[in-house]
Every structure is written in C-alpha cells, then in structure tokens.
C-alpha cells in the first residue's frame, strides 16, 4: 500500500508542476484533488497494475483522463455513512466538476475515468 500512496503523491506533484508551467496555478488545488481521487480509484480498481494519467487542454477546458486498463462496471458516487473511511472520492470529483462548469464520466468499457473542468474563472 505504501508504494501506491507514493504513486498517487507523485501524480499530484507532477500535475501541480504541469499546471504551474502552463500558467494555471490558480486551478491547481481543484485539479490535484481530482487527480488524487481518480488515480487512487484506478490503483485500487486495477490492484496496482499500470495506471496512466493524461492531462490535455482544449477549448478552455482541462481534461483529466485516468486509464487503468481493467474493463468492468461503471462506478457511481455512493452515499457513505458518517463512519465510513472510504467512498467519498467520486462525490468530490462530481462536486468539483459542477463547481468548475465541467463534467466527469467513465468510458463505456469502464477502463478509464475522466473529468473536464472549465478553465475560466466563474
């Protein structure tokens, strides 16, 4: 589990660095949180197999795509109990996407999860 946590931390760091290089540091906190949640889910879902993170800019939006290569069901945000330690990640992604005039989803085969965020300040 420690290696997986290090992988997620590295993806967060690389994402923040990339956003700063692109002059988008004002969006870094939200984007890094989305990346953290999607990458963590992908690592858990794929049991630690290869996970690919792609960030792309197009038409004023940032698209975050995380691919774990495991075809399966389409995850949906749940409603965890107050005592639950897990299960809030997709709710956070959904909330950030809504606040940033974006959306999120899962590929038809379940092997990739994505989130698009508008880069204009609301």
Automatic annotation (TrEMBL):
InterPro entries associated with the record: Anti-sigma-factor_SerPK, HATPase_C_sf, HATPase_dom
Pfam family, one: HATPase_c_2
Alphabetized Gene3D superfamilies for the sequence: Histidine kinase-like ATPase, C-terminal domain (3.30.565.10)
Organism superkingdom: Bacteria
UniProt keyword list: ATP-binding, Kinase, Nucleotide-binding, Serine/threonine-protein kinase, Transferase
Molecular-function GO terms, alphabetical: ATP binding
Keyword Transferase attributed: yes
SUPFAM superfamilies referenced in this protein's UniProt entry, alphabetically: ATPase domain of HSP90 chaperone/DNA topoisomerase II/histidine kinase
The UniProt record lists the keyword Lipid biosynthesis: no
Domain Histidine kinase/HSP90-like ATPase, first and last residues per copy: 7-97
Full protein name: ATP-binding protein
Taxonomic placement: Bacteria, Bacillati, Actinomycetota, Actinomycetes, Kitasatosporales
């Amino acid at each position: 589990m420690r290696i997986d946590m290090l992988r997620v931390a590295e993806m967060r760091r690389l994402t923040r660095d990339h956003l700063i290089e692109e002059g988008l540091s004002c969006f870094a906190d939200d984007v890094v949180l989305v990346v953290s949640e999607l990458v963590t889910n992908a690592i858990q879902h794929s049991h630690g197999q290869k996970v690919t993170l792609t960030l792309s800019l197009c038409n004023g939006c940032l698209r975050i795509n995380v691919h774990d290569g495991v075809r399966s069901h389409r995850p949906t945000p749940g409603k965890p109990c107050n005592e639950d330690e897990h299960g809030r990640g997709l709710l956070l992604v959904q909330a950030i996407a809504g606040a940033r005039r974006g959306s999120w989803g899962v590929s038809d085969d379940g092997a990739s999860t994505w989130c698009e965020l508008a880069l204009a300040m609301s």
